Amino acid sequence: MTTLIRLEILRTLRNRRYLLFTIAYPALMYFFFIHAYDSSKLAGGLPVKTYFMVTMATFGAVGAVLTGSAQRISLERKSGWVRQLRLTALPGRAYTFGKIAASAVTTLPAILVVFAVGASQGVSLSAPQWIGLTAALWLGSFVFAALGVALGYAAAPDSVQTIVMITYMVMALFGGTWFPVSGSLEKFARFNPVYLYNKLATFTQPGHSLDTVAVAGLAAFLAVFVVAAAALYRRDTRQA
Amino acid sequence: MGTEVAAFRGVGKSYGRVRAVDDLNLVLRPGETVALLGPNGAGKSSSLDLLLGLREPDQGSVTLFGGTPREAIAAGRVGAMLQSGGLMADVKVRELVRLACDVHPRGRSVTGVLTDAGITELAERRVDKLSGGQEQRVRFALAIAGESDLIVLDEPTTGMDVSVRQAFWASMRAQADAGRTVLFATHYLEEADSIADRVLVLHRGRLIADGSSAEIKARAGARRVAFELHDADGEFEESVLRMLPGVQSLDVTARVPGVRTVRIRTADADASVAGLYRAGLYPRGLEVTGLGLEQAFLTITGEQDQYEAAKESAR
User: What strand order describes the sheet that includes B259-266?
Assistant: First the structure.
Protein backbone atom coordinates (compact mmCIF):
# COMPACT_ATOMS: atom_id res chain seq x y z
CA MET A 1 0.00 0.00 0.00
CA THR A 2 2.94 2.36 0.64
CA THR A 3 3.94 2.02 -3.02
CA LEU A 4 0.49 3.13 -4.07
CA ILE A 5 0.51 6.09 -1.70
CA ARG A 6 4.02 7.10 -2.78
CA LEU A 7 2.99 6.93 -6.41
CA GLU A 8 -0.16 8.96 -5.76
CA ILE A 9 1.91 11.70 -4.11
CA LEU A 10 4.54 11.64 -6.84
CA ARG A 11 2.05 12.01 -9.66
CA THR A 12 0.25 14.88 -7.95
CA LEU A 13 3.50 16.79 -7.43
CA ARG A 14 4.36 16.12 -11.07
CA ASN A 15 1.13 17.64 -12.23
CA ARG A 16 1.78 21.22 -13.38
CA ARG A 17 -1.82 22.23 -12.96
CA TYR A 18 -1.61 21.31 -9.31
CA LEU A 19 1.45 23.46 -8.76
CA LEU A 20 -0.07 26.43 -10.56
CA PHE A 21 -3.54 26.24 -9.16
CA THR A 22 -2.91 25.33 -5.56
CA ILE A 23 0.45 26.95 -4.85
CA ALA A 24 1.23 29.79 -7.25
CA TYR A 25 -2.30 31.13 -7.62
CA PRO A 26 -3.12 31.57 -3.88
CA ALA A 27 0.29 33.16 -3.31
CA LEU A 28 -0.35 35.69 -6.06
CA MET A 29 -3.86 36.39 -4.79
CA TYR A 30 -2.34 37.06 -1.39
CA PHE A 31 -0.30 39.96 -2.78
CA PHE A 32 -3.40 41.32 -4.41
CA PHE A 33 -5.48 41.21 -1.22
CA ILE A 34 -2.93 42.74 1.14
CA HIS A 35 -2.58 45.67 -1.23
CA ALA A 36 -6.29 46.03 -1.90
CA TYR A 37 -7.16 46.18 1.82
CA ASP A 38 -5.85 48.65 4.33
CA SER A 39 -3.30 46.50 6.09
CA SER A 40 -3.34 48.54 9.28
CA LYS A 41 -6.89 47.36 9.99
CA LEU A 42 -8.38 44.14 11.23
CA ALA A 43 -10.28 41.65 9.09
CA GLY A 44 -12.38 38.97 10.73
CA GLY A 45 -10.69 39.73 14.05
CA LEU A 46 -7.18 39.33 12.62
CA PRO A 47 -4.65 41.73 11.10
CA VAL A 48 -5.35 41.93 7.35
CA LYS A 49 -2.03 40.35 6.40
CA THR A 50 -2.58 37.42 8.75
CA TYR A 51 -6.22 37.02 7.79
CA PHE A 52 -5.56 36.73 4.07
CA MET A 53 -2.50 34.58 4.65
CA VAL A 54 -4.78 32.08 6.36
CA THR A 55 -7.62 32.31 3.86
CA MET A 56 -5.27 31.94 0.91
CA ALA A 57 -3.60 28.95 2.58
CA THR A 58 -6.99 27.32 3.13
CA PHE A 59 -8.03 28.28 -0.41
CA GLY A 60 -5.00 26.45 -1.80
CA ALA A 61 -5.38 23.51 0.56
CA VAL A 62 -9.08 22.99 -0.19
CA GLY A 63 -8.38 23.32 -3.91
CA ALA A 64 -5.57 20.77 -3.67
CA VAL A 65 -7.66 18.12 -1.91
CA LEU A 66 -10.87 18.66 -3.86
CA THR A 67 -9.30 18.51 -7.30
CA GLY A 68 -6.77 15.89 -6.20
CA SER A 69 -9.37 13.51 -4.86
CA ALA A 70 -12.77 14.28 -6.42
CA GLN A 71 -11.61 14.78 -9.98
CA ARG A 72 -9.13 11.93 -9.93
CA ILE A 73 -11.54 9.45 -8.38
CA SER A 74 -14.30 10.30 -10.80
CA LEU A 75 -12.03 10.06 -13.84
CA GLU A 76 -10.39 6.87 -12.65
CA ARG A 77 -13.73 5.24 -11.99
CA LYS A 78 -14.58 5.97 -15.60
CA SER A 79 -11.21 4.96 -17.04
CA GLY A 80 -11.33 1.60 -15.26
CA TRP A 81 -8.23 2.13 -13.13
CA VAL A 82 -10.39 1.56 -10.05
CA ARG A 83 -11.50 -1.78 -11.52
CA GLN A 84 -7.95 -2.72 -12.38
CA LEU A 85 -6.88 -2.03 -8.80
CA ARG A 86 -9.67 -4.26 -7.54
CA LEU A 87 -7.94 -7.11 -9.37
CA THR A 88 -4.88 -6.72 -7.18
CA ALA A 89 -4.35 -8.06 -3.68
CA LEU A 90 -4.75 -4.53 -2.30
CA PRO A 91 -7.78 -4.18 -0.05
CA GLY A 92 -10.54 -2.03 -1.57
CA ARG A 93 -9.98 0.77 0.92
CA ALA A 94 -6.35 1.19 -0.14
CA TYR A 95 -7.29 3.28 -3.14
CA THR A 96 -9.31 5.78 -1.11
CA PHE A 97 -6.67 5.88 1.63
CA GLY A 98 -4.05 6.50 -1.03
CA LYS A 99 -6.03 9.44 -2.34
CA ILE A 100 -6.54 10.94 1.12
CA ALA A 101 -2.90 10.42 2.09
CA ALA A 102 -1.71 12.00 -1.13
CA SER A 103 -4.10 14.92 -0.56
CA ALA A 104 -2.80 15.35 2.97
CA VAL A 105 0.79 15.53 1.79
CA THR A 106 0.05 17.87 -1.06
CA THR A 107 -1.79 20.39 1.12
CA LEU A 108 1.40 21.07 3.09
CA PRO A 109 3.23 22.89 0.27
CA ALA A 110 0.06 24.88 -0.45
CA ILE A 111 -0.03 26.04 3.18
CA LEU A 112 3.71 26.53 3.65
CA VAL A 113 4.30 28.59 0.50
CA VAL A 114 1.59 31.10 1.42
CA PHE A 115 2.91 31.21 4.99
CA ALA A 116 6.42 31.93 3.71
CA VAL A 117 5.08 34.75 1.55
CA GLY A 118 3.08 36.04 4.53
CA ALA A 119 6.15 36.03 6.75
CA SER A 120 8.12 37.91 4.10
CA GLN A 121 5.35 40.53 3.96
CA GLY A 122 5.52 41.20 7.68
CA VAL A 123 3.16 38.69 9.32
CA SER A 124 4.76 38.10 12.66
CA LEU A 125 3.77 35.17 14.85
CA SER A 126 5.65 33.27 17.53
CA ALA A 127 7.20 29.92 16.63
CA PRO A 128 4.54 27.91 18.51
CA GLN A 129 1.85 29.94 16.71
CA TRP A 130 3.37 29.22 13.28
CA ILE A 131 3.58 25.53 14.12
CA GLY A 132 0.12 25.44 15.68
CA LEU A 133 -1.43 27.26 12.72
CA THR A 134 0.23 24.94 10.21
CA ALA A 135 -0.96 21.91 12.17
CA ALA A 136 -4.50 23.28 12.49
CA LEU A 137 -4.81 24.02 8.78
CA TRP A 138 -3.20 20.73 7.82
CA LEU A 139 -5.53 18.68 10.03
CA GLY A 140 -8.52 20.73 8.88
CA SER A 141 -7.78 19.79 5.27
CA PHE A 142 -8.84 16.20 6.00
CA VAL A 143 -12.45 17.41 6.23
CA PHE A 144 -12.23 18.51 2.61
CA ALA A 145 -10.35 15.40 1.55
CA ALA A 146 -13.34 13.37 2.79
CA LEU A 147 -15.68 15.71 0.89
CA GLY A 148 -13.53 15.25 -2.20
CA VAL A 149 -13.76 11.46 -1.96
CA ALA A 150 -17.54 11.67 -1.58
CA LEU A 151 -17.85 13.98 -4.61
CA GLY A 152 -15.53 11.73 -6.60
CA TYR A 153 -17.81 8.75 -6.05
CA ALA A 154 -20.99 10.78 -6.52
CA ALA A 155 -20.23 12.69 -9.69
CA ALA A 156 -19.78 11.51 -13.27
CA PRO A 157 -16.49 12.51 -14.89
CA ASP A 158 -18.06 14.96 -17.33
CA SER A 159 -19.71 16.93 -14.55
CA VAL A 160 -17.27 16.47 -11.69
CA GLN A 161 -15.13 19.48 -12.56
CA THR A 162 -18.14 21.80 -12.61
CA ILE A 163 -19.52 20.38 -9.38
CA VAL A 164 -16.16 20.68 -7.64
CA MET A 165 -15.61 24.24 -8.86
CA ILE A 166 -19.07 25.41 -7.81
CA THR A 167 -18.79 23.78 -4.39
CA TYR A 168 -15.31 25.17 -3.93
CA MET A 169 -16.14 28.73 -5.06
CA VAL A 170 -19.42 29.02 -3.16
CA MET A 171 -17.79 27.74 0.04
CA ALA A 172 -14.89 30.17 -0.47
CA LEU A 173 -17.11 33.14 -1.35
CA PHE A 174 -19.33 32.79 1.73
CA GLY A 175 -16.58 31.40 3.92
CA GLY A 176 -14.52 34.57 4.18
CA THR A 177 -11.83 33.59 1.72
CA TRP A 178 -11.95 36.82 -0.32
CA PHE A 179 -13.64 39.14 2.16
CA PRO A 180 -14.51 38.72 5.84
CA VAL A 181 -18.15 37.73 6.25
CA SER A 182 -20.18 39.72 8.73
CA GLY A 183 -23.76 40.46 9.77
CA SER A 184 -26.47 38.13 8.49
CA LEU A 185 -24.05 36.34 6.14
CA GLU A 186 -22.15 35.19 9.17
CA LYS A 187 -25.21 33.34 10.51
CA PHE A 188 -25.24 31.12 7.45
CA ALA A 189 -21.48 30.92 7.31
CA ARG A 190 -21.48 28.84 10.47
CA PHE A 191 -22.80 26.01 8.33
CA ASN A 192 -19.98 26.45 5.84
CA PRO A 193 -16.92 24.26 6.46
CA VAL A 194 -14.56 26.75 4.81
CA TYR A 195 -15.70 29.48 7.18
CA LEU A 196 -15.05 27.19 10.16
CA TYR A 197 -11.73 26.22 8.63
CA ASN A 198 -10.66 29.88 8.37
CA LYS A 199 -11.79 30.41 11.97
CA LEU A 200 -9.10 28.01 13.16
CA ALA A 201 -6.63 30.93 12.89
CA THR A 202 -8.22 33.16 15.54
CA PHE A 203 -6.14 31.64 18.34
CA THR A 204 -3.16 33.64 17.06
CA GLN A 205 -4.76 36.85 18.42
CA PRO A 206 -3.85 37.90 21.94
CA GLY A 207 -6.41 36.73 24.47
CA HIS A 208 -7.92 34.08 22.19
CA SER A 209 -7.62 30.34 22.36
CA LEU A 210 -8.53 27.78 19.70
CA ASP A 211 -12.12 28.29 18.50
CA THR A 212 -13.69 25.10 19.86
CA VAL A 213 -17.02 25.80 18.16
CA ALA A 214 -15.24 25.80 14.80
CA VAL A 215 -13.38 22.60 15.72
CA ALA A 216 -16.64 20.89 16.73
CA GLY A 217 -18.32 22.08 13.54
CA LEU A 218 -15.49 20.77 11.41
CA ALA A 219 -15.56 17.44 13.26
CA ALA A 220 -19.28 17.17 12.49
CA PHE A 221 -18.67 17.94 8.81
CA LEU A 222 -15.87 15.35 8.76
CA ALA A 223 -18.24 12.73 10.18
CA VAL A 224 -20.94 13.55 7.61
CA PHE A 225 -18.49 13.51 4.68
CA VAL A 226 -16.88 10.24 5.80
CA VAL A 227 -20.27 8.53 6.12
CA ALA A 228 -21.33 9.85 2.71
CA ALA A 229 -18.02 8.83 1.11
CA ALA A 230 -18.27 5.32 2.58
CA ALA A 231 -21.85 4.87 1.36
CA LEU A 232 -21.02 6.15 -2.14
CA TYR A 233 -17.91 3.99 -2.25
CA ARG A 234 -19.96 0.90 -1.45
CA ARG A 235 -22.53 1.80 -4.08
CA ASP A 236 -19.74 2.17 -6.64
CA THR A 237 -18.25 -1.20 -5.70
CA ARG A 238 -21.57 -2.93 -6.28
CA GLN A 239 -21.86 -1.36 -9.71
CA ALA A 240 -18.27 -2.37 -10.48
CA MET B 1 -11.52 -30.18 -5.44
CA GLY B 2 -7.85 -29.54 -5.99
CA THR B 3 -8.02 -29.86 -9.74
CA GLU B 4 -10.41 -27.00 -10.30
CA VAL B 5 -9.03 -23.63 -11.22
CA ALA B 6 -12.38 -21.98 -11.73
CA ALA B 7 -15.97 -23.13 -11.71
CA PHE B 8 -19.25 -21.57 -12.79
CA ARG B 9 -22.26 -23.47 -11.47
CA GLY B 10 -25.67 -22.47 -12.77
CA VAL B 11 -24.59 -18.85 -13.04
CA GLY B 12 -27.02 -16.22 -14.24
CA LYS B 13 -26.71 -12.45 -14.46
CA SER B 14 -29.12 -9.86 -15.82
CA TYR B 15 -28.84 -6.14 -16.32
CA GLY B 16 -32.38 -4.89 -16.23
CA ARG B 17 -34.19 -6.97 -18.85
CA VAL B 18 -31.01 -8.04 -20.62
CA ARG B 19 -29.91 -11.55 -19.76
CA ALA B 20 -26.12 -11.19 -19.98
CA VAL B 21 -25.22 -14.63 -18.66
CA ASP B 22 -27.69 -17.51 -18.70
CA ASP B 23 -27.24 -20.75 -16.74
CA LEU B 24 -23.50 -20.96 -17.25
CA ASN B 25 -21.81 -24.19 -16.15
CA LEU B 26 -18.11 -24.46 -16.68
CA VAL B 27 -14.98 -25.83 -15.03
CA LEU B 28 -11.43 -24.75 -15.87
CA ARG B 29 -8.61 -27.20 -15.15
CA PRO B 30 -4.97 -26.42 -14.34
CA GLY B 31 -2.67 -25.79 -17.28
CA GLU B 32 -5.40 -25.25 -19.85
CA THR B 33 -5.23 -22.41 -22.34
CA VAL B 34 -8.83 -21.50 -22.93
CA ALA B 35 -10.28 -19.08 -25.47
CA LEU B 36 -13.65 -17.52 -24.83
CA LEU B 37 -15.27 -16.69 -28.13
CA GLY B 38 -18.44 -14.87 -28.92
CA PRO B 39 -19.83 -11.96 -30.89
CA ASN B 40 -20.10 -8.57 -29.22
CA GLY B 41 -22.67 -8.65 -26.46
CA ALA B 42 -22.41 -12.44 -26.09
CA GLY B 43 -21.59 -12.12 -22.41
CA LYS B 44 -17.81 -12.55 -22.54
CA SER B 45 -16.92 -9.53 -20.46
CA SER B 46 -19.81 -10.15 -18.07
CA SER B 47 -18.61 -13.71 -17.51
CA LEU B 48 -15.08 -12.50 -16.81
CA ASP B 49 -16.42 -9.84 -14.42
CA LEU B 50 -18.27 -12.58 -12.54
CA LEU B 51 -15.21 -14.82 -12.56
CA LEU B 52 -13.09 -12.04 -11.07
CA GLY B 53 -15.67 -11.05 -8.49
CA LEU B 54 -16.19 -7.58 -9.96
CA ARG B 55 -19.87 -8.42 -10.10
CA GLU B 56 -22.04 -10.79 -8.13
CA PRO B 57 -24.13 -13.39 -9.97
CA ASP B 58 -27.95 -13.25 -9.61
CA GLN B 59 -28.10 -17.05 -9.56
CA GLY B 60 -25.57 -19.80 -9.02
CA SER B 61 -22.02 -19.57 -7.77
CA VAL B 62 -18.59 -18.74 -9.08
CA THR B 63 -15.53 -20.19 -7.37
CA LEU B 64 -11.84 -19.65 -8.00
CA PHE B 65 -9.44 -22.24 -6.57
CA GLY B 66 -12.28 -23.49 -4.40
CA GLY B 67 -12.93 -20.14 -2.71
CA THR B 68 -14.43 -16.80 -3.58
CA PRO B 69 -12.89 -14.77 -6.41
CA ARG B 70 -11.84 -12.09 -3.92
CA GLU B 71 -9.96 -14.62 -1.76
CA ALA B 72 -8.12 -15.98 -4.78
CA ILE B 73 -7.14 -12.47 -5.90
CA ALA B 74 -6.02 -11.49 -2.40
CA ALA B 75 -3.87 -14.63 -2.30
CA GLY B 76 -2.21 -13.59 -5.55
CA ARG B 77 -3.45 -16.58 -7.53
CA VAL B 78 -5.00 -14.54 -10.33
CA GLY B 79 -3.56 -11.95 -12.68
CA ALA B 80 -6.02 -10.16 -14.92
CA MET B 81 -6.16 -7.70 -17.73
CA LEU B 82 -9.51 -6.08 -18.39
CA GLN B 83 -10.73 -4.56 -21.58
CA SER B 84 -12.00 -1.65 -19.54
CA GLY B 85 -9.01 -1.61 -17.21
CA GLY B 86 -7.68 1.93 -17.10
CA LEU B 87 -4.18 2.89 -16.18
CA MET B 88 -2.90 5.46 -13.73
CA ALA B 89 -2.09 8.79 -15.40
CA ASP B 90 0.99 10.95 -14.72
CA VAL B 91 3.27 8.01 -13.91
CA LYS B 92 5.96 6.17 -15.87
CA VAL B 93 5.44 2.65 -17.16
CA ARG B 94 8.18 1.33 -14.88
CA GLU B 95 6.58 2.94 -11.82
CA LEU B 96 3.21 1.43 -12.63
CA VAL B 97 4.68 -2.03 -13.20
CA ARG B 98 6.63 -1.73 -9.95
CA LEU B 99 3.37 -0.95 -8.14
CA ALA B 100 1.78 -4.09 -9.59
CA CYS B 101 4.81 -6.21 -8.64
CA ASP B 102 4.87 -4.73 -5.13
CA VAL B 103 1.24 -5.34 -4.29
CA HIS B 104 1.27 -8.91 -5.59
CA PRO B 105 1.84 -11.43 -2.76
CA ARG B 106 4.17 -13.37 -5.06
CA GLY B 107 5.44 -10.44 -7.09
CA ARG B 108 8.07 -10.92 -9.76
CA SER B 109 11.00 -8.67 -10.60
CA VAL B 110 10.09 -5.48 -12.46
CA THR B 111 12.76 -6.14 -15.10
CA GLY B 112 11.46 -9.65 -15.74
CA VAL B 113 7.89 -8.45 -16.16
CA LEU B 114 8.92 -5.63 -18.51
CA THR B 115 10.87 -8.12 -20.61
CA ASP B 116 8.09 -10.71 -20.73
CA ALA B 117 5.54 -8.11 -21.77
CA GLY B 118 7.97 -6.72 -24.35
CA ILE B 119 7.83 -3.19 -22.96
CA THR B 120 11.39 -2.70 -21.71
CA GLU B 121 11.87 0.13 -24.19
CA LEU B 122 8.70 1.84 -22.95
CA ALA B 123 9.74 1.73 -19.28
CA GLU B 124 10.57 5.42 -18.95
CA ARG B 125 7.60 6.64 -21.00
CA ARG B 126 4.62 8.28 -19.34
CA VAL B 127 1.61 5.98 -19.23
CA ASP B 128 -0.74 8.65 -20.61
CA LYS B 129 1.48 9.11 -23.70
CA LEU B 130 1.18 5.56 -25.06
CA SER B 131 -0.62 4.27 -28.13
CA GLY B 132 -3.54 1.84 -27.79
CA GLY B 133 -1.41 -1.21 -28.56
CA GLN B 134 1.31 -0.10 -26.15
CA GLU B 135 -1.29 0.42 -23.43
CA GLN B 136 -2.51 -3.11 -24.00
CA ARG B 137 0.98 -4.45 -23.40
CA VAL B 138 1.27 -2.43 -20.20
CA ARG B 139 -2.05 -3.91 -19.05
CA PHE B 140 -0.68 -7.33 -19.87
CA ALA B 141 2.39 -6.54 -17.77
CA LEU B 142 0.09 -5.75 -14.83
CA ALA B 143 -1.60 -9.14 -15.31
CA ILE B 144 1.71 -11.03 -15.19
CA ALA B 145 3.31 -8.98 -12.40
CA GLY B 146 3.25 -11.94 -10.02
CA GLU B 147 3.48 -15.70 -9.95
CA SER B 148 -0.24 -16.15 -10.49
CA ASP B 149 -1.77 -19.54 -11.26
CA LEU B 150 -4.48 -18.16 -13.52
CA ILE B 151 -4.11 -15.37 -16.06
CA VAL B 152 -7.33 -13.80 -17.33
CA LEU B 153 -7.15 -11.59 -20.42
CA ASP B 154 -10.12 -9.78 -21.91
CA GLU B 155 -9.61 -8.98 -25.60
CA PRO B 156 -5.87 -8.64 -25.09
CA THR B 157 -4.85 -7.82 -28.65
CA THR B 158 -7.44 -5.15 -29.41
CA GLY B 159 -5.69 -2.13 -30.87
CA MET B 160 -2.51 -4.00 -31.80
CA ASP B 161 -1.27 -4.16 -35.36
CA VAL B 162 -0.57 -7.53 -36.94
CA SER B 163 3.16 -7.82 -36.21
CA VAL B 164 2.73 -6.72 -32.59
CA ARG B 165 -0.10 -9.21 -32.22
CA GLN B 166 2.16 -12.08 -33.28
CA ALA B 167 4.74 -11.05 -30.70
CA PHE B 168 2.02 -10.79 -28.09
CA TRP B 169 0.84 -14.33 -28.80
CA ALA B 170 4.36 -15.52 -28.04
CA SER B 171 4.11 -13.76 -24.65
CA MET B 172 0.77 -15.45 -24.00
CA ARG B 173 2.15 -18.86 -24.94
CA ALA B 174 5.11 -18.31 -22.63
CA GLN B 175 2.64 -17.85 -19.76
CA ALA B 176 0.92 -21.13 -20.66
CA ASP B 177 4.28 -22.88 -21.03
CA ALA B 178 5.18 -21.75 -17.51
CA GLY B 179 2.31 -23.98 -16.36
CA ARG B 180 -0.27 -21.27 -15.80
CA THR B 181 -3.89 -21.59 -16.73
CA VAL B 182 -4.72 -18.92 -19.28
CA LEU B 183 -8.25 -17.78 -20.06
CA PHE B 184 -8.67 -15.16 -22.72
CA ALA B 185 -11.68 -13.62 -24.41
CA THR B 186 -11.28 -12.64 -28.00
CA HIS B 187 -13.12 -12.02 -31.19
CA TYR B 188 -10.09 -12.86 -33.32
CA LEU B 189 -10.74 -16.46 -34.22
CA GLU B 190 -7.23 -16.93 -35.49
CA GLU B 191 -6.03 -16.11 -32.01
CA ALA B 192 -8.21 -18.81 -30.49
CA ASP B 193 -7.24 -21.28 -33.20
CA SER B 194 -3.50 -20.85 -32.83
CA ILE B 195 -3.15 -20.51 -29.05
CA ALA B 196 -6.00 -22.17 -27.21
CA ASP B 197 -6.26 -25.87 -26.51
CA ARG B 198 -9.86 -25.39 -25.49
CA VAL B 199 -12.42 -23.10 -27.05
CA LEU B 200 -15.62 -21.93 -25.42
CA VAL B 201 -18.27 -20.33 -27.59
CA LEU B 202 -20.62 -17.98 -25.83
CA HIS B 203 -23.71 -16.67 -27.57
CA ARG B 204 -26.49 -14.60 -26.02
CA GLY B 205 -25.15 -15.38 -22.58
CA ARG B 206 -25.16 -19.16 -23.12
CA LEU B 207 -22.29 -21.54 -23.55
CA ILE B 208 -23.12 -23.20 -26.86
CA ALA B 209 -19.86 -25.04 -27.58
CA ASP B 210 -16.96 -26.28 -25.50
CA GLY B 211 -14.10 -28.30 -26.96
CA SER B 212 -10.82 -28.16 -28.84
CA SER B 213 -10.69 -25.95 -31.87
CA ALA B 214 -10.71 -29.11 -34.05
CA GLU B 215 -13.82 -30.38 -32.29
CA ILE B 216 -15.63 -27.11 -32.73
CA LYS B 217 -14.80 -27.12 -36.41
CA ALA B 218 -15.99 -30.73 -36.69
CA ARG B 219 -19.21 -29.89 -34.93
CA ALA B 220 -19.91 -27.12 -37.39
CA GLY B 221 -19.36 -29.52 -40.29
CA ALA B 222 -15.77 -28.74 -40.47
CA ARG B 223 -14.96 -29.90 -43.99
CA ARG B 224 -16.10 -29.01 -47.38
CA VAL B 225 -16.16 -31.50 -50.25
CA ALA B 226 -16.47 -30.05 -53.74
CA PHE B 227 -16.54 -31.86 -57.09
CA GLU B 228 -18.23 -31.95 -60.48
CA LEU B 229 -20.57 -34.61 -61.83
CA HIS B 230 -20.71 -34.91 -65.61
CA ASP B 231 -23.85 -36.31 -67.29
CA ALA B 232 -21.50 -38.23 -69.56
CA ASP B 233 -20.49 -40.36 -66.57
CA GLY B 234 -24.05 -41.46 -65.86
CA GLU B 235 -27.32 -40.24 -64.36
CA PHE B 236 -27.73 -39.54 -60.62
CA GLU B 237 -30.37 -38.50 -58.13
CA GLU B 238 -29.76 -35.59 -55.76
CA SER B 239 -31.27 -37.67 -52.99
CA VAL B 240 -28.27 -40.01 -53.29
CA LEU B 241 -26.00 -37.10 -52.38
CA ARG B 242 -28.24 -36.15 -49.50
CA MET B 243 -28.02 -39.69 -48.12
CA LEU B 244 -24.21 -39.66 -47.98
CA PRO B 245 -22.84 -40.17 -44.45
CA GLY B 246 -21.96 -37.03 -42.53
CA VAL B 247 -23.57 -34.54 -44.89
CA GLN B 248 -24.83 -31.40 -43.25
CA SER B 249 -25.55 -29.20 -46.21
CA LEU B 250 -25.67 -29.65 -49.92
CA ASP B 251 -25.47 -27.22 -52.78
CA VAL B 252 -25.80 -28.25 -56.42
CA THR B 253 -25.42 -25.81 -59.31
CA ALA B 254 -25.53 -26.39 -63.07
CA ARG B 255 -23.89 -23.47 -64.82
CA VAL B 256 -22.49 -25.44 -67.74
CA PRO B 257 -24.83 -27.82 -69.59
CA GLY B 258 -24.15 -31.42 -68.67
CA VAL B 259 -21.95 -30.49 -65.69
CA ARG B 260 -23.17 -30.08 -62.16
CA THR B 261 -21.02 -28.55 -59.43
CA VAL B 262 -21.63 -30.05 -56.01
CA ARG B 263 -20.56 -28.57 -52.69
CA ILE B 264 -21.08 -30.54 -49.53
CA ARG B 265 -20.39 -29.53 -45.97
CA THR B 266 -19.72 -32.63 -43.95
CA ALA B 267 -18.86 -33.66 -40.46
CA ASP B 268 -17.05 -36.73 -41.77
CA ALA B 269 -15.37 -36.05 -45.08
CA ASP B 270 -13.75 -39.49 -45.29
CA ALA B 271 -17.09 -41.30 -45.01
CA SER B 272 -18.80 -38.91 -47.41
CA VAL B 273 -16.18 -39.44 -50.11
CA ALA B 274 -16.17 -43.21 -49.62
CA GLY B 275 -19.99 -43.12 -49.92
CA LEU B 276 -19.74 -41.24 -53.21
CA TYR B 277 -17.82 -44.04 -54.85
CA ARG B 278 -19.96 -46.73 -53.24
CA ALA B 279 -23.01 -45.07 -54.81
CA GLY B 280 -21.36 -45.62 -58.18
CA LEU B 281 -20.70 -41.91 -58.83
CA TYR B 282 -17.64 -40.58 -60.54
CA PRO B 283 -16.67 -37.23 -58.98
CA ARG B 284 -14.27 -35.12 -61.02
CA GLY B 285 -11.92 -32.44 -59.67
CA LEU B 286 -12.54 -33.65 -56.13
CA GLU B 287 -11.46 -31.22 -53.43
CA VAL B 288 -11.64 -31.68 -49.67
CA THR B 289 -10.90 -28.55 -47.64
CA GLY B 290 -11.12 -27.73 -43.97
CA LEU B 291 -13.41 -24.99 -42.74
CA GLY B 292 -11.78 -22.24 -40.72
CA LEU B 293 -12.78 -21.71 -37.14
CA GLU B 294 -14.42 -18.50 -38.28
CA GLN B 295 -16.90 -20.31 -40.52
CA ALA B 296 -17.42 -22.91 -37.83
CA PHE B 297 -18.17 -20.16 -35.39
CA LEU B 298 -20.66 -18.48 -37.71
CA THR B 299 -22.35 -21.81 -38.32
CA ILE B 300 -22.71 -22.62 -34.65
CA THR B 301 -24.02 -19.20 -33.64
CA GLY B 302 -26.31 -19.16 -36.69
CA GLU B 303 -27.78 -22.54 -35.73
CA GLN B 304 -28.38 -21.27 -32.22
CA ASP B 305 -30.20 -18.20 -33.59
CA GLN B 306 -32.40 -20.41 -35.79
CA TYR B 307 -33.14 -22.73 -32.91
CA GLU B 308 -34.15 -19.86 -30.69
CA ALA B 309 -36.23 -18.22 -33.40
CA ALA B 310 -38.07 -21.52 -33.89
CA LYS B 311 -38.65 -21.85 -30.15
CA GLU B 312 -39.92 -18.28 -30.03
CA SER B 313 -42.44 -18.81 -32.87
CA ALA B 314 -43.63 -22.10 -31.34
CA ARG B 315 -44.77 -20.22 -28.25
Answer: B247-256, B259-266, B223-230, B284-290
Q: Which ipTM score applies to this complex?
A: 0.81
Could you read off the pLDDT tens digit of each residue along chain B, which spans 315 residues?
458 999 999 999 998 888 899 999 999 999 999 999 888 888 898 999 999 999 999 999 999 999 999 999 999 999 999 887 788 888 999 999 999 999 999 999 999 999 999 999 999 999 989 988 899 999 999 999 999 999 999 999 887 888 888 888 888 889 999 989 999 998 887 788 888 999 999 988 899 889 988 888 777 766 889 999 998 888 778 888 888 888 888 999 888 888 999 999 888 888 999 999 998 899 999 998 877 777 777 777 887 788 878 887 876
Measured between CA atoms, how close is A79 to chain B, in angstroms? 5
Listed in sequence order, the DSSP H helices in B82-228 are 93-103, 110-116, 132-143, 162-177, 189-195, 213-219
Provide the residue range defining the domain that includes A111: 2-239
Selection from B100, B94, B67 nearest residue B81 by Cα = B100
Picking from A3, A76, A240, the nearest residue to B98 by CB comes out as A3
Same domain, yes or no: B191 and B72? yes
Q: Is some CB atom of chain A closer than 8 A to the CB atom of B85?
A: yes
Domain membership of residue B94 as a residue range: 6-218
Give A 147-206 residues with CB within 8 A of chain B. none
Query: Hey, is the C-beta of B55 within 8 angstroms of any chain A C-beta?
Result: yes
